[in-house]
């Protein structure tokens, strides 16, 4: 039976990796998810076949509860709420690992008679899993707007407090690994780690949420891998390391896309509200307004149109209307492409997922560098709800909090049309200088309604 289980694990790992390869593009992503899901099902079955497995009714109850909660949530969630769901479900994984570490502590009487590496791996999993769970809950709260998206700090005490909480968690863990078996110590590990997770994510502003989600996802994977070492469970080790490694790579890519270091992001304070010096007095400046009819005419006589999607498009669920608009323009012989910033939206790949849902051809989605080289030859750049990722202040204003962040150079286009509800700021909490550019026209209103109006005007031309 042990040999048979090992063979099943090898098959599961191969499916994990093959499924992950499918996630590199929208065309193969669904198939990749199904392949990886089959691999996980095989891994679960293999684990249940291990000798000594019991408590079948309890296992069935857990599977039943997870199915009843998870399946409807995943089927009914709107694409705009997908980042929140990712944050919440990821946090649940970290919380599960932390609880397993607590159970292992109790079952082994404080890791008595267990090898030292088992205690270290289990305690590491407890700390990281707890941080991931509580940090993910804060990320969920900010994304769901249950908590303010602005940085929430305790001022100059923030970093010293974080150091104290982390030190407390590690000290309790060291005491346990040294032979102490008081249950208050493992509770201390979990509570100190929980507070540390809260204190780390609360000061992080909304502008950094895509990076935070990716970072917490990586931490959950690492905690699962560590628990796999403690339990001698190969499936947990491999699956956890795949998640941890891919999440770490993605976090690094997201940080580079914002020209920020991961330590600077963890330090917090970027995006979501006014600066520490108080509200900034904003000078009233004129902007040019336009209508759906004028926007349609402008694009109908263009040779090349670039659509720049942002979170506003996601909120309005305008991706299908955008696809219809693009089809009408292409039928007129106009070249249409989509400029995708790596951190547009509220989670990595958010815009790609939305546009793929509307069956936008993958070849039309252009990465930032490729798009920036095409903007000088673009007649019309249509910005739909994107804000900070198009703000020229990132290049021109050394005092701007986003200075140095790579942006989409939409201001290099011959003309720009911005679809927004209002002149409100983005995650970074600052004005977008693009709105005041003489080449920019503002079409105010709900993005889906505005694009639908443009579609009707294009049909009438």
Features:
59% helix; alpha/beta; Rossmann fold; 17 helices; 461 residues; 3 domains; single chain
Describe the structure.
The relative contact order is 0.10. Helix content is 59%, strand content 7%. The protein has 3 domains: 76 residues; 184 residues, no CATH class; 169 residues, TPP-binding domain (Rossmann fold), CATH 3.40.50.1220. The protein has 461 residues and is of the alpha/beta class.
Strand order of the largest sheet: 3-2-1-4-5-6
| Strand runs, count | 6
| Principal-axes shape call | globular
Please state the CA-atom Rg, rounded to the nearest Å. 25 Å
Q: Quick summary of this structure?
A:
Helices cover 59% and strands 7% of the residues. With 461 residues, it is of the alpha/beta class.
Write the layout of secondary structure elements.
Elements: H1 2-22, H2 26-48, H3 56-76, H4 82-107, H5 116-143, H6 158-177, H7 183-201, H8 209-231, H9 234-257, H10 262-267, H11 292-300, E1 304-309, H12 311-316, H13 319-331, E2 335-340, H14 350-357, E3 365-367, H15 368-374, E4 380-384, H16 393-396, E5 416-420, E6 440-444, H17 447-460
Parallel strand pairs: 1-2, 1-4, 2-3, 4-5, 5-6
Function: The transhydrogenation between NADH and NADP is coupled to respiration and ATP hydrolysis and functions as a proton pump across the membrane.
Subcellular location: Cell inner membrane
Catalytic activity: NAD(+) + NADPH + H(+)(in) = NADH + NADP(+) + H(+)(out)
